[in-house]
Amino acid sequence: MFKILKRKDLADTIKLFEIEAPLVAKKAKPGQFVILRIKEGGERIPLTIADYDGEKGSVTVIFQEVGKTTKDLGKLNEGDFISDFIGPLGTPVEFPHHKRVLAIGGGVGVAPLYPKVKMLHNQGAEVISIIGAKTADMLILEEEMKAVSDQLFICTDDGTKGHHGFVTDVLKDILSKDTEFDEVIAIGPPIMMKIVANITRPYKIPTMVSLNPIMIDGTGMCGGCRVTVGGETKFACVDGPAFDGHLVDFDELMRRQTMYKSEEQKSLALAEERGEHKCRLD
Ligand code: NAD
Ligand code: FES
Hints:
The chain has about 280 residues and is of the alpha/beta class. Helix content is about 30%, strand content about 30%. The two termini are about 35 Å apart.
């Protein structure tokens, strides 16, 4: 069993949990993820590692309540336990020679972006970051990103904070004046990552994205997380989740992500019927 050491509500539906998991914390590296289950027989949830502390033996994950299981997870509190916390999984990312990087995070995608920016900052690289969310209330890790970025641009879709518009507007503006970047790192909704990759392609700036397709086993056995990269089938759980954004078939990724939408809606509706989940709109 794994204890929830800290819970922080970052936004209405976005929660941060720091979980006691010394073996995972000891081995974790930026770019890796965990798969957790709230209880035996429950649904597996893959979550990118947002931070880790090897000395304290803790791993931080950030999740958005989107389906029944993440809503159930969001009901847990400090001191509660979850049954499984497997990891670290996936291939870590490394940037040993990078001097200057542009980092872009959209919505909950800022969570997996943060450890990469922190690593680059600690290595002495200059990092310019752009983070965005639908509204000011949904912006996460602003202070943390500010602390590890040389410059931080904020965007909101509704203009409640920073630039009124998408992160890709600021990206275009920066690249129109300055293209001297070793890499652009973009993590967020697939449509955002697709547009970032389309913007950086003509400039030939290497662009890393992190994919979060449907995952089941997380070990390359089930094929649930398959994505097409450079015309080849890859498994995001073992070959990724980070890939060259210029080679990813984002349209296929977006199609596959909606595959179980009706099952997810049925499961939520059933939980509502049983009174397990109270709709916030009631
Ligand atoms: P969101 O829809 O609120 O979008 C976040 C930001 O992305 C927006 O504020 C905007 O700046 C940008 N964006 C959105 N649509 C755009 C468009 N059409 N063109 C240009 N920019 C656009 O995001 P959300 O609701 O927080 O969802 C987060 C997404 O991140 C989910 O789809 C989730 O699956 C994904 N995610 C990915 C990872 C990963 O490791 N790849 C991890 C966590 C979450
Ligand atoms: Fe099963 Fe990747 S999650 S192969």
